[in-house]
Amino acid sequence: MSMELSIILAMAIPAVGAVLIALSGRIPNLRETITLLTAIALFLNVLNLLGPVLDGERPEVHLLDMFPGLAIAFKVEPLGMMFSLIASGLWILNSIYSIGYMRGNKEKHQTRFYICFAIAISATLGLAYSANLLTLFIFYEVLTFSTYPLVSHKGNETALKGARTYLGILVTTSVAFLFFAIAWTYSATGTLDFVDGGILGGKVEGPLMGLLLMLFIYGIGKAAVMPVHRWLPAAMVAPTPVSALLHAVAVVKSGVFSVVKVIVYTFGIDNLVTSGSADWLVYISGFTIIAASMVALRQDNLKRRLAYSTISQLSYVVLAAAILTPISAVGAALHIAAHAFGKITLFFAAGSIYTAAHKTEVSQLNGIGWKMPITMTAFAIGALSMIGLPPTAGFVSKWYIIQGAMSSENFVALSVVILSTLLNAGYFLPIIYAAFFRQAEPKGPDDHGGHHDHHGEAPLPIVIAITSTATLTILMFFFPDVALELAQQMIGGIQ
Fold first, then answer.
1. What membrane topology does the annotation report for this chain (predicted)?
2. Cα(96)–Cα(312) distance, rounded to whole angstroms?
3. Most CB atoms closer than 10 Å: which of 114, 205, 408, 466?
């Protein structure tokens, strides 16, 4: 198979899968079999591109010209290769998990759920392989609209309100800021292509470059840099597999991926260093990391605590990119992968707890580790990764971010990482301690307390998925070679 065909198939496979899922909706077993086979086929297709990219090739496809000099085009560079591997690989595990969760909780509209999920993955791959800002913008918007039905899945007033907040913030920021930033970039440079070293050097200078960067950062609302973050906790009304999609597989990853891609391939790290136009971003991302961590400390609802943890962890990627050193850029790319594995494990655990025990609050989890040892062990692994402790993937990415901060003598960034690590421990370790070392509450008359008398682990598909993602979180610590090579190739031209 040619590499050009593989690029097209990366978007076509999930799109065709969505059609087949719709046609098989009346037969749940067939529908879910098609979902799994589609996810596996996509991952194998993406793997077909990995070898050539590692060997230095950059396959590309020019699809069509929308306007003179503005094309929908795709190019597989190292960062996009990493993102596509994460999204396609985790779709398999999320699909397995979804079977157990959607059936275990007797969710309605399951066919619609699988259709929209497949469309969202197709958009994610299009975004990952975008060769220019126009292509990225188109697939960014498709991803937003395809995930709206997933956020509003339950159909009640709470879900609809959360989904309106989700859609309103993401569309407003992309239209008001991102589109304007893209138009400004084209006006200044005559191109929107992603190029090693950037395209803005000598075209936009001084304070204007800082303003343009600000438009991109806040236009890419999916990166959830404060104050453009409220959509993310609002979207927690969605079923847990959707939360996993939002936080680990596609949506927020498309945000920080886009931020890193714009900094590296549109602005150029060397250009930003010379101009000093990104200094403010260290402070804004650092504030987001600390503020979101402090909010997470006060959340009793488990999914909301994880949501604010995600806001904080996303800004690790933004902070690392803003440090503007090659090693910190490597850390930014690695943290996209590390956060994906760790956070999907945490959300899978939250959904497992809800499915088996119907518990949603942190205060209800005393002693649950003895009833659900697989789930809570996996949760502990994901939590240790978010804190940044070995032997987990989070340690690898944080190590590079810290090294980047130290090499540039950026003590603000270094202080943020150290303080936030303590805060991460503050809102994760008590959950693990309570699960394994505190006594469960006795059964109360309303049967809504923190007791765990009549449940064990969640259904088998959930256990398989959560065990797999926890294992990946550890494996990345011991075998980071592929992710590290892709990250280093991304910054290969930076001195």
1. Multi-pass membrane protein
2. 28
3. 466
